[in-house]
Write a structure and sequence with these properties.
Blueprint lengths: L1 H41 L9 H22 L4
């Protein structure tokens, strides 16, 4: 009889723990959905494509990073 009580207690405890985890997960999911809805209704503005000068500057920075990584790796340019 002790075994049946033990198994019943373990099953009930496991079910309660699973229910708590499920409720917490669903609340988190609902909060995340509310955040995304707020972001969508806030009206995120789509910016214009970057200008040519900005693209050239980004390309220059990427080239500098590539050179610094080569120096760090010990490669002679």
């Amino acid at each position: 009889m002790l075994d049946a009580t033990l198994y019943l207690t373990l099953a009930a405890t496991t079910l309660a723990g699973l229910a708590i985890i499920a409720v917490a997960g669903l609340r988190g999911w609902n909060g995340w959905l509310d955040l995304k809805r707020a972001e969508l209704t806030h009206g995120v503005e789509v910016s214009a494509p970057p200008s040519a000068a900005a693209r050239i500057e980004v390309a220059d920075l990427k080239e500098r990073i590539r050179k610094l990584e080569a120096i760090a790796a010990g490669v002679d340019l």
